[in-house]
Automatic annotation (TrEMBL):
Enzyme class label: transferase
Protein's recorded name: Dihydrolipoamide acetyltransferase component of pyruvate dehydrogenase complex
Native species: Streptomyces xiamenensis
Cofactor(s) listed: (R)-lipoate
Keyword Glycosyltransferase: no
Region annotation Disordered: where it falls in the sequence: 79-163, 206-230
Top-level division of the source organism's lineage: Bacteria
All copies of domain Lipoyl-binding, residue ranges: 5-80
């Protein structure tokens, strides 16, 4: 009786996610795992997460190499029950499709079955096809593993040659790419471990060759391009998702930006007095302004030509990390105290820099606060975080000459910008919101009137 093996498929890791890139395997083939033990770390378009396996047993197969992207619903890992886990030795693949390396074979009752790596064959009704050990051979790509249950095929004769060669590829995505572009995977040299064919290997075959630039008369004797070769960096994971979202925002949303300078001297004094982060105070001001102008906590539904005003404020804020720009979401900001806002901002920022934000912590924002002043710039006209209708920008706070109480004084001044979807509001509403924010920045104690 063959071993009982469960194959765990890559689950849906968040709304709108279609795949994930393997960052690091946490288990090895032959290693025992328990239920809900993390087995692989993957990067999606929204976050880096550890994926737990719902099965217990011994790992018999890992699908995908580090750096490879696999689609949701594809095999991720196979686990055999400990009592019947097969030993796995060298394996060979047979009967592979020349385009995608998919193997097929015959299962019970003569049914054909494919495992994506080699062949599985057994005689109808489990009967032996001739003398032998009564075993079935399963091909994985580089050798064979035997299980009880059927007779093995006869050994190949010296004069016979296999009709097709094995293909070192295990990712369904790689096979699909090869099929779509008409590439014979047997002709592709894999760059992964043990010659494994990765997505990049197939993509390299699909890209047209870059023509060499003309060689000037003053070129070096070897005829080399003195400028060197252009570097191409593919966008993947979060960077690719951000690029797509920004392009969509710029294409679909008719945005506009207004800005104003404000005296932030009293705001800095409030920060020292309360020992709260500056971003927490700015978040409190932002939430208070949205309570005054709720129509800006909205989105535009182009399908129905309707403005959808949202009941809760889920405040997104831009956070720069080693993995690029992320927008963590501070949920239900309208229900939190200023101290609670500060604590949650600190937690989300730390989690973002550690690369462990969950998809839920990166989705669902209704309004974004963009503190680009940390980069030492005064102003910006940012692209809206689709599908939001507005974004408040905070520039750097610097000492400047300022008219204060009828006299020229050195004050700490900040430039505030407000970018908005012009379908959702007009300039009067946008200007009113920004002026309200500026007034609270200049006089934080005025917030008490709104409590």
């Amino acid at each position: 009786m063959s071993a009982m093996t469960e194959t765990f498929l890559l689950p849906d890791l968040g709304e709108g996610l279609t795949g994930a890139e393997i960052v690091r395997w946490l288990v090895e083939v032959g290693e025992a795992v328990t239920v809900d033990q993390p087995v692989v770390e993957v990067e999606t378009a929204k976050a880096m997460v550890e994926v737990p396996c719902p099965y217990a047993g011994v790992v018999t197969e890992r699908f995908g190499a580090v750096g490879e992207e696999i689609p949701v619903g594809s095999p991720l890992i196979s686990v055999a029950h400990p009592a019947t886990a097969p030993g796995r030795g060298p394996t060979t693949g047979t009967g592979t499709d020349p385009a995608d390396g998919t193997g097929t074979g015959t299962g019970p009752n003569g049914a054909s079955r494919a495992n994506g790596h080699g062949t599985l064959s057994a005689p109808p009704n489990g009967e032996s096809s001739g003398g032998g050990s009564g075993q079935v051979l399963v091909g994985y790509g580089t050798g064979t593993t035997t299980f009880p249950g059927a007779s093995p095929p006869p050994p190949p004769s010296a004069s016979s040659a296999p009709a097709r060669s094995a293909v070192a590829v295990i990712s369904p995505l790689v096979r699909k790419l090869a099929r779509d572009h008409g590439i014979d995977l047997r002709t592709v040299q894999g760059s992964g471990p043990d010659g494994l064919i990765l997505r990049a290997d197939v993509m390299a075959r699909t890209a047209p060759p870059t023509p060499a630039p003309p060689t000037p008369a003053s070129a070096s004797p070897r005829g080399q391009d003195p400028a060197g070769t252009a570097l191409r960096t593919p966008l993947r994971g979060i960077a690719a998702a951000a690029a797509a979202k920004l392009s969509r925002s710029r294409t679909e949303i008719p945005d506009a930006t207004c800005w104003v300078d404000a005296d932030a001297t009293e705001l800095l004094a409030a920060r020292r007095a309360t020992e709260l982060p500056l971003l927490a105070l700015l978040s409190r001001i932002c939430v208070a302004a949205l309570a005054r102008y709720p129509q800006l906590n909205a989105t535009f539904d182009a399908a129905t030509n309707e403005i959808v005003t949202l009941p809760a404020v889920h405040l997104g804020f831009a956070a720069q990390t080693d993995r690029g720009l992320l927008v963590p979401v501070l949920r239900d900001a309208h229900t939190r105290t200023t101290r609670e806002l500060g604590a949650e901002l600190a937690r989300l920022t730390e989690t973002a820099r550690a690369g462990t934000l969950s998809p839920a912590e990166l989705t669902g924002s209704t309004f974004t606060l963009n503190n680009y002043g940390v980069f030492g710039v005064d102003g910006s006209t940012p692209i809206l975080n689709h599908p939001e209708a507005a974004m408040l920008g905070i520039g750097r706070i610097v000492p400047k000459p300022w008219a204060h109480e009828g006299e020229l004084a050195l004050r700490h001044v900040v430039q505030l910008s407000f970018t908005f979807d012009h379908r959702v509001c007009d300039g009067a509403v946008a200007g009113g919101f920004l002026r309200h924010v500026a007034d609270r920045v200049e006089s934080p104690l005025s917030l008490l009137a709104d409590l």
